[in-house]
């Protein structure tokens, strides 16, 4: 069953907060992981590993580099869960 | 090498006796034990032969930020808590980051992280192994956590020499300062090895007390009924700087660091050399390197872990160094209260030695009901006053691998 954008955004925001301490309400679809949220590559990979488990999806390494914004990641997970 | 006086200006502890120095010291003087039954399911699931330990007084989750807990092994979490307390206690000195160093220590490193990553790999596959696994399990992780927190850029060094580790880190800190490469050093050690694997391993070699029905009375250095050490965990940190710098900034000075020494037995991988000649040389060198005489020593915080063999071996080394003067030395073995913090033990006991000089009070050795007749020492069993004047005290640590490390301190008088 496909997940909604809202469900994925709020779940992803929890994972980002867990890993980095960034407040969940500042994690919006238009935010860039690196430029806006200052998330380093090792934290990004941790978030990806946790997102795969949480949403029961696969996010191959070669696709991770295309996930520039929170919105990119949310859309990817929504599609992958469909 | 310069020979300026080095002093201790800040201390921090996160231990089985308390979450800070005040609580830890008060409980130590009160003769309390930090040992208790381990309330984790693994004890019964694995049917461990030892069911108790001296665990830290509070869960670090309640002290640190959540993301700090997520990204740091417990051994680094404890280090951060003790390091921050020591730094604040020193008055958060204004120092050029390029002149601030860390000399840290651990005996085992991030064992919780290592074993849990192995379980993730076995059960869920390589995709589920956390990317932070390596930086969390590496033994230099705790020192790096302390150093990054304070932006220390004059070197973050970690020594690994089993139970001698964090006394050796104090020796390294003295060298760091005397080499002129740093102006301020945070020295310390941490350990978080109250985990079923080390418990089973230490128990397998018959090193742990099996007094499961009476944990608080299990660690009993020098007692005839001692049957092994009690595994402890935690961290301690000391801020060291030159006397000149400390006086210039009006810092509180706890004690002078006379110096330290490291020697090695090269005798047996775990058993101490019964002759104790290398251990004796470490004590003598530590005391004399700072210009003190053996007869200046009035107090020793012994390594004394409560094992039948180890306590005797250290006693033999003490006789070799001090001869007749040994009768005039007030000896304490604080592992009776704290358990054995392995790589964190030396720093915590150095902190106790510094506090003993600062407050002129020797903390007690608990559970000494019947002193081993083969060990003729003046063991302090209730808090005892120390005399005035520039008295000297040492803290001993010995570790598997035949490592001997000794730090020597003198009461500070302006």
Structure explained in plain terms:
The complex is a heterodimer of chains A (82) and B (414). Chain A contains four helices and no strands. Chain A is mainly alpha-helical. Chain A has a single domain, classed as Non-ribosomal Peptide Synthetase Peptidyl Carrier Protein, Chain A (Orthogonal Bundle), CATH 1.10.1200.10. Chain A is globular and about 30 Å long. In chain A, 27% of the residues are buried. The mean pLDDT of chain B is 97. Helices cover 34% and strands 20% of the residues of chain B. Chain B has helices at residues 21-29, 42-45, 66-71, 74-89, 111-124, 133-137, 141-150, 165-178, 196-204, 243-248, 277-289, 308-322, 335-338, 345-359; strands spanning 6-14, 36-37, 52-53, 100-105, 156-159, 184-191, 234-242, 255-264, 297-301, 330-332, 361-362, 378-379, 384-385, 392-399, 403-411. Chain B is built from 14 helices and 15 strands. With 414 residues, chain B is of the alpha/beta class. Chain B has a single domain, classed as Peroxisomal Thiolase, Chain A, domain 1 (3-Layer(aba) Sandwich), CATH 3.40.47. Chain B is globular. In chain B, helix 11 crosses helix 12. The A-B interface holds A 17-21, 42, 45-46, 49, 52-53 and B 65-68, 70-71, 127-132, 135. Chain B: Residues 3-411 form the Ketosynthase family 3 (KS3) domain. Chain B: InterPro entries: 3-oxoacyl-ACP_synth-2, Beta-ketoacyl_synthase, Ketoacyl_synth_C, Ketoacyl_synth_N, PKS_Beta-ketoAc_synthase_dom, Thiolase-like. Chain B: Belongs to the thiolase-like superfamily. Beta-ketoacyl-ACP synthases family. Chain B: Keywords: Acyltransferase, Fatty acid biosynthesis, Fatty acid metabolism, Lipid biosynthesis, Lipid metabolism, Transferase. Chain B: One of its GO terms (molecular function) is 3-oxoacyl-[acyl-carrier-protein] synthase activity.
């Amino acid at each position: 069953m496909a997940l909604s954008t809202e469900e994925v955004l709020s779940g992803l925001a929890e994972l980002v907060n867990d890993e980095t301490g960034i407040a969940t309400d500042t994690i919006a679809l238009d935010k860039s992981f690196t430029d806006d949220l200052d998330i380093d590559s090792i934290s990004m990979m941790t978030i990806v590993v946790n997102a795969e488990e949480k949403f029961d999806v696969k996010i191959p390494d070669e696709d991770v580099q295309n996930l520039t914004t929170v919105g990119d990641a949310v859309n990817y997970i929504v599609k992958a869960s469909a | 090498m310069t020979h300026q006086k080095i002093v201790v200006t800040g201390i921090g502890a996160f231990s089985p006796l308390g979450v800070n120095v005040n609580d830890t010291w008060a409980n130590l003087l009160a003769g309390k034990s930090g040992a208790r039954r381990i309330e984790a399911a693994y004890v019964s699931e694995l049917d461990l032969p030892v069911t108790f330990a001296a665990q830290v007084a509070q869960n670090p989750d309640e002290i640190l930020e959540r993301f700090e807990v997520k990204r740091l092994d417990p051994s680094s979490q404890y280090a951060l808590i003790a390091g921050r307390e020591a730094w604040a206690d020193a008055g958060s000195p204004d120092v050029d980051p390029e002149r601030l160093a860390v000399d840290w220590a651990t005996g085992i490193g991030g064992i919780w992280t290592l074993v849990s990553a192995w379980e993730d790999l076995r059960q869920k596959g390589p995709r589920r192994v956390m990317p932070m696994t390596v930086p969390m399990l590496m033994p230099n992780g705790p020192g790096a956590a302390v150093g990054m927190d304070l932006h220390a850029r004059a070197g973050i060094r970690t020594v690994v020499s089993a139970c001698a580790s964090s006394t050796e880190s104090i020796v390294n800190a003295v060298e760091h300062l005397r080499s002129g490469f740093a102006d301020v050093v945070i020295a310390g050690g941490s350990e978080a090895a109250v985990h079923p694997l080390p418990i089973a391993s230490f128990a397998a070699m018959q090193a742990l007390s099996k007094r499961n029905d009476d944990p608080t009375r299990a660690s009993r250095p020098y007692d005839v009924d001692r049957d092994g050490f009690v595994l402890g965990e935690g961290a301690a940190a000391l801020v060291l700087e030159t006397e000149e710098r400390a006086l210039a900034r009006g810092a509180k000075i706890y004690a002078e660091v006379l110096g330290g020494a490291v020697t090695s037995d090269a005798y047996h991988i775990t058993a101490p050399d019964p002759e104790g000649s290398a251990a004796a040389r470490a004590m003598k060198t530590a005391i004399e390197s700072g210009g003190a005489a053996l007869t200046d020593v009035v107090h020793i915080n012994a390594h004394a872990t409560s094992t039948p063999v180890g306590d005797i071996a250290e006693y033999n080394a003490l006789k070799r160094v001090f001869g007749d003067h040994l009768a005039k030395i007030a000896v304490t073995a604080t592992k009776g209260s704290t358990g054995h913090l392995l790589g964190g033990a030396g720093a915590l006991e150095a902190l106790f030695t510094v506090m003993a000089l600062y407050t002129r009070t020797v903390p007690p050795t608990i559970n000494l009901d019947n002193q081993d007749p083969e060990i003729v020492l003046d063991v302090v069993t209730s808090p005892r006053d120390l005399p005035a004047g520039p008295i000297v005290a040492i803290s001993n640590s010995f570790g598997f691998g035949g490592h001997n490390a000794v730090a020597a301190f003198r009461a500070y008088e302006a």
